[in-house]
Amino acid sequence: MDDTIAAISTALGVGAISIIRVSGPQAIEIVNSIFSKDISNVESHTIHYGFIVEKNEKVDEVLVSVMKGPKTFTVEDVIEINAHGGINTTNKILELLLVHGCRLAEPGEFTKRAFINGRIDLTEAEGVMDLINSETDVARKMALNQVNGKVSSMISNLRNDLAEIISNIEVNIDYPEYEDIKVMTVQDIKSQISVIESNINRILNESQNGEILKNGIKTAIVGKPNVGKSSLLNRLIGEDKAIVTSIKGTTRDSVEATFNFDNIVLNLIDTAGIRDTDDLVESIGVSKSLKIIDEADLILFVLNYNEELTEDDYTIFDKLKDKNYITIINKIDLKKRIDDSNLKNIVYVSALEDKNIDDIKDKVKELFNLDKIRTDDLTYLTSARSKAILIKVLEAVKDVKNGLDCYMPIDMIEIDLKNIWNLLGEIIGESYDEELLDQLFSRFCVGK
Length: 448
Prior knowledge:
By secondary structure, the protein is an alpha/beta fold. It has helices at 27-32, 87-99, 109-116, 122-133, 137-147, 150-174, 186-215, 229-237, 280-295, 311-319, 357-367, 384-405, 410-428, 434-441; strands at residues 5-8, 17-23, 46-54, 57-67, 78-84, 103-104, 217-222, 255-261, 264-270, 298-304, 325-330, 346-348.
């Protein structure tokens, strides 16, 4: 961390402005060597107009922002060069920085330095990435709560509660002769651990809602060929993305799109029609459709109002036994021939005439209890890494309770409690290994 890094922080392409970011102990010195004005002794958090120069040639007219550590994102000296947007100009400035001593930053390295230097914790760092990738207003607000430390505080409060139990146990063990200290009985510990267990369960349960708000619902549109799956996809997203014809088997591979309603994203996958077929290419598409059913969070099973149920329909129904699914009966503009008396979660639509499409939204809300998801306090734990650790914590808490029931020695209980405290520390980055950091920050874009 003793070198100076540089990267382009804006999307590379034609635009009004591009930003090249530099961070490290030589940031000011290196930028000063290619800038037309001397910024070696300027005040922190100031902006300076001038030119990036190579020898005696002007490269670009720029604004240079000088921010001196520790009051910066990385806690190091940071320079941001605001240049005219354009691939050649932006790359040329980055090239000059590298020639004069900078190293090209790795993906997420600026945020990684902010974490290592204590500017943010690991949960806040993940919030930065979520903020960049947020697709809805609610997802943005939820990520902002992570960046602002609200999620970290939730985990820190659990650690503080555990620390209090541990410290009381240690006092009881080390200073039994003192009469004015609180004696921690097994019942006291069980009572306090139960409260912590309840809070962990609440966080995990609410994290499912957070996952929906953050990543959306993976939704597969399935059914036999020519029942209107592609037409339904087009109606939902409001554009003709999927090819629609009257020829069976037109869709031979999956088509993906997103549908956003009420701050919920449906990640739609229009699959190939499922039927027995001798066509090699179509059969590959059918196999892929069956696999997508297994992986999806929600199935929109499309049937034809104008046709009786077939063996292919019942095959699909058999795959949906343990899945969240909506039975969408399409083509209600035609004569009814389907026997729907034993079907459930039905929505009747006409994709051709755009009838009742909004009823699908209402059914999704009903299946996933979306109306009950709180959006007034969006403090949710959404990281898969964090949730996996919290599940381990919950199991460890149950082991502690079992140990107390079996009259395990109190010093052994204390060891288990410290293990739980350390596990919670992994969520916010109080303890970590370098490989974990490399994996986490490699998912960031370069320049962030």
